[in-house]
Write a structure and sequence with these properties.
Largest interface: A-B, 23 and 32 residues
Number of domains of chain B: 2
CATH superfamily of the largest domain in chain B: RNA polymerase sigma factor, region 2, helix turn helix motif
Oligomer: heterodimer
Order of helices and strands of chain A: HHHHHHHHHHHHHEEEEEEEEEE
CATH class of the largest domain in chain A: Mainly Beta
Number of helices of chain A: 13
Structural class of chain A: alpha+beta
Number of domains of chain A: 2
Radius of gyration of chain A: 38 Å
Number of strands of chain B: 0
Strand content of chain A: 35-45%
Distance between the termini of chain A: 85 Å
CATH topology of the largest domain in chain A: Porin
CATH architecture of the largest domain in chain B: Orthogonal Bundle
Largest sheet of chain B: none
CATH architecture of the largest domain in chain A: Beta Barrel
Order of helices and strands of chain B: HHHHHHHH
Helix content of chain B: over 70%
Chain lengths: 449, 177
Amino acid sequence: MSEFQWDQLKEAEMTYSSRVSFDKVMEMREEKKKRRVLFWWFSSAGLLLVGLGALYMLLPTPSSSVASQVALKSSPSSIEPSESAIATKPKRTEFETNSTPSAKTTRKSQPIVSSEFNETTLNRLSDKLSMEIPVEAPEDRDAPRRNERATATNVDRVYSNGQNNRIAMGYGEEGSALMGRKDMASQVYSLGLTPSYAEWLDPFALRHEYFDDRLLPDNDLRNRFKPNLYAEITAYTGSHNAINFDNRDNLSVLGTQYHAHYQFAILKDFGNGHLAGLGLAYGEWVGNGQYRDRRLETYTEIDTFHVVVMIPGNPVQTVEVIDTNTFTEWSETTGTLNYKISKVSIPLAYRKYLPLGKSVWRLSAQLCPGMTTRTEGSYFSRTDYLPLSIQRQFTFDGRLAFGPSVPVSKVWTIVLEPNLFAQSFVEAQTRVAKAKLFSGFGVSLVGKL
Amino acid sequence: MTEQELVEGCIKEDRKCQEILWSQYSQKLFSLAMRYCQNQEEAEDALMESFVKIYNNLPKFRFQSSLETWMRRVTVNVCINKIRARKVSFDSIDDKAIDLPSSDKSFERLHVEQLLKLVGLLPEGYKAVFNMYAIEGFSHKEIAQTMGIDEGTSRSQFAKARKALQSMLDKLEGGKS
């Protein structure tokens, strides 16, 4: 086909039917505009609703509503002893001055006293606890009634009810700030989450509820002095990209590095949501990439040829011409780079549990000194690569993570943590530390021991 | 009125300029749409949709090509979307397996209307690739990107289209004689 025919085909014009017109196009346009406005309106409304929902989730629950929940949940029979316990919140001196045991209160507090307790233990406990308990009466509708009882309660008896040490220690053997205090989060609030902000604000309101289950006669005093230990199994991963498009660098590397880390740790609860501990970890650090090595090369080209010179009257002569040219050219070499570093380390872990809205979030920080167990390939950065020759090299890692803690059973919680971590090792031959910053995601399973 | 003034007028929502643009290009673009679409109705829908897009997106036109080229590109994209919505399959075959006609000289005897009819008779997949490559001047790479197929498929579809056109022409000439 000729060019002319192609052009004719391209330029060909055809007449459309009467259903197509400029006005119709404009109508279609207006309709589309309206639809777009509706779409944006609905999208904005949706986003606004989501935003308001999130805001509501972040707002703390008013303490009065918590108090009413607790009051509703509590059965009259179980309230009695715990009310007595709450009434012990005022300072001991106040109790001493006010305490006048009545027949009624003595009768109620007596069954709470375990037969296993001896007088010394009780006195020691009461002394210890009275020093530690912050003194404040809970603010709810029952407060005046409780205060009345408090004045008429035998303080030592109340302290000896087998539960008061939990009040003082903050977190009992099963009830911990981290684990949702087993019974409270699931029974009182039934949120499926760890205790809400309200518990943090007014722990007495919940412990008051908590006592009901703890007033069993077989409750063993020794259990209460067990250290609050937690087992934590963690897996986290992250990636780091090395990208270099800068032509000024002779060597540029394009690659991705991944790190997978698995660890087991034992953590001790130090109260107020602070945990610290150590464990054992295994990590694999892998990199795959490509390099481009650009070098400016200079070479000389020598071109030799003969020219026949014929001058009339002179013999024919041949002249050899040597033409020398110098060229400069960029030469490029490309190749692949891979490396793998396996290592074991000892994580020194710190965790802090924080209430955020109606859920509990966890801040994790840890440092992991360790040793490589296997190294192979060539470690690379954006502008450099280094063959790994020595198997045992010192490593040091650090990690920061923050995420929600979600209880999955009465014993276990899962923490979902976006994280940022740095991996480093000291290259044994050059004694230079090589480090990378990774971002990724981790999951921790935390269980009460 | 220059092309730039026309574009600027359309951007300012000057109805007169918009109408000029319509009257100047609608028939050309309809002819283009007809080459891609299955029937006149679909081509008319494509034309109107294209003009809506053209009016809406004129502020993005940077005068890096001629206005007509840009408008043709928008229309081709609308038509391709319509073809893709019909889920037309584009089979990839080996180029070398096709015995291509050695020359296109037999086409030279045809009028534009006849050529258009012949192109219109091509199967759906071939037709789009043939139009884009042979008439609009897209490269196989561009066709592959626009249609979401690979470059090899585009080449093979084009080769098939040429072969099909040749056989149709042979039949036409055989019928005449």
